[in-house]
Amino acid sequence: MNFRIKKLDIFVARQFGLLFVGTFFICQFVLMMQFLWRYIDDLIGKGLSMEVMAQFFWYMALMLVPQAFPLAILLSSLIAFGNLGESSELTAIKAAGISLMQTFRSLIFITVLICLGSFYFQNNVGPMANMKLTQLLISMKQKSPELEIPEGIFYDGIPNCNIYVQKKNVKTGKLYGIMIYKMTQSYEDAAIILADSGMLQSTAEKKHLLLSLWNGEWFENMQSQQFAGSAAVPYRRESFVTKQIVLDFDGDFSMTDASSLSNNARGKSLSQIYSDIDSLNHAFDSIGRAFYNDARHGIYATPVLKRPDSLAAVKRGMSERLDFDKLLDKQKLEQKQQMYSMALGQVQSEVNDLEFKSMITNDNERIIRQHQIEAVNKFTLALQCLIFFFIGAPLGAIIRKGGLGIPVIISVFVFIVYYILDNSGFRMARQGDWAVWFGKGLAPAILTPVAIFVTYKACNDSMVFNADIWRNFFMHALGLRTKRHVSGKEVIIDEPRYAQDGTTLLDINHEVTRYSRDHNLVSPPNVVKVFFKYRPDHEIERISGILEKTIDDLSNTRDKQVLHYINQYPIMAVKAHTRPFERKWLNVMAAVVLPLGIFFYLRMWRYRLRLLRDLRVIRQTNSNMVSYIEKRIVKAPITATDQA
Question: N or C: where does the chain have the smaller number of CB atoms within 10 Å of the terminal CB?
């Protein structure tokens, strides 16, 4: 194989490269807007500085780069080869003896480089960006400004305070219908503050909040150490017209400690993930062995049975076949109730202990699965670039439509299918219902055969994805048809033979009349003849063939009225009124499958009625055409015996 770089490779790479850069930024922008919309509530009204916002957008862009690569490759390859096919450049390349795979050669090399770059990005840059972005998001959520108190619910974003606001004015910052629970040492010592209106503002140093209240009351318990032994607890009630309260609150933006994000698998490289999985398995195995040892040493057995003498008594009772129910019946009612209560309490305690240990075990398994999913995701997301190329480039070569129309529609459809498969597999693997390799490998396993199939069809010039063929197929299946459109020719070599064509049209009228009389097209067709004893209708095929030849000859005219009459002729379906399918066994199968048989039977009856209408239109149009030819062109009566 010759690996020398050729001019064709440079030409195709240039066409692809320019489109890839443009589509990459488009896809990156769309993904960033989608991500931004999820966290828009954490950004608006927070009073964040431009530096913090710039960091947020920068780390968000870095994190989404590996996801934008496959989409950009899919869209750019579709447009590039669609443009080559639409401008007939791809046809010229194939005519020169260059196969489609040779045309792909340079782009395959570029795509492999992008795959490697995507993997490097996910393994080195992506984890850092994800960790920084997660820290920023947590810090943004913790930074709650004074004007972001919601209406109608209690807000606990300020330390030692629960604030309820009935209504607020966003423009002026005023709060109405205020209720405040101010905590001091305990809930018994909480101060309750009611006010008609108020305003919450931060101080200049951003270390405190100044709460200004108007027209309210203050209720507070006076419980302290000196009243600890007293049954009656005094309280203080204060009514005020205006009051100001200073609340402790650090309003400055502070970055969350990264140590709290140690379980964030997306913020780790591949080596860190494998190392942490080993550490987690070792730690969780130790916990599991501890749980197992607890169960093995009888921690869930009845405490009475832990004593050797009690255990011996039970064994002796089992050997003597003692009836515990009879022994229980001999006990007094109070003793029975006490025994039942003790047993129920012990069982409930052990059940709670098992549920707690089960929760710990499930959390441990979930953390390990998240690390395994992220490790597999680094490979599948890089492989996605190659899969999308072998879907986009062959489809572009088959469809041969450039621009941002059909390629964008196909790209969105392919991405939606991949996203549904990948997201479904991810959720099932995260829940532990599927194995991690199966869940994350579902989308590539399904789309890889699709990519191979599309590439094979493109290399063999298959018409399976030809839009015109599929459009004609569905129009035929649904009984739709196109209208005849014949326009005037700029250059005419042979003039129409009007007299002979007029005679032919009169003969067609006689044959159409005879055919309509012999074939009762209005009546429903015979079921046996339709599905089991089919006879071809060659007569209507012959009439249609003669009519099409006559129309083809008349289309050489310069007369616009003749062209108008020609376009009134319907395009007849000459076989659909006789049987559903060409092959006999398909007709039999359609009759056996009752719903399909009814559908095709009614469809064929519809075609018989349409044929009857077409024959009437043909007869009327023939008469109009012959009359016009006699008056304007031949200027002599035309009969069925005239010769050209």
Answer: N
**Residue 626 DSSP class:** H
DSSP state of 521: -
Other Cβ atoms within 10 Å of 34 Cβ, number: 10
- Our measurement of the distance from residue 341's CA atom to the centroid of its chain's CA atoms, rounded to an integer in Å, reads 55
DSSP 160: T
Q: Kindly state the tokens that stand for 491.
A: 């250059």
* 640 phi and psi angles, rounded to 5 deg: -70, -10
Looking at residue 301, the DSSP 8-state letter turns out to be S
Closest CA to 201 of 193, 212, 214: 212
pLDDT in tens, 376-424: 999 999 999 999 999 999 988 888 877 777 778 888 888 899 989 999 9
- Buried b / exposed e along 532-554 (16+ C-beta atoms within 10 A): eebeebeebeebbeebeebbebb
Place of tokens 């990005």: 121
Give the pLDDT confidence of 195-234 residue by residue, as tens digits.
999 888 777 666 677 888 999 998 887 655 444 445 555 6
Round to whole Å and give the CA distance between 228 and 207.
Answer: 35
**Average pLDDT score over the chain:** 81
Q: Measure the CA–CA gap between 518 and 512, rounded to whole angstroms.
A: 10
Alpha-carbon distance of 148 to 137, in angstroms, equals 17
From 67-71, 437-441, 527-531, the region with the lowest mean pLDDT? 527-531
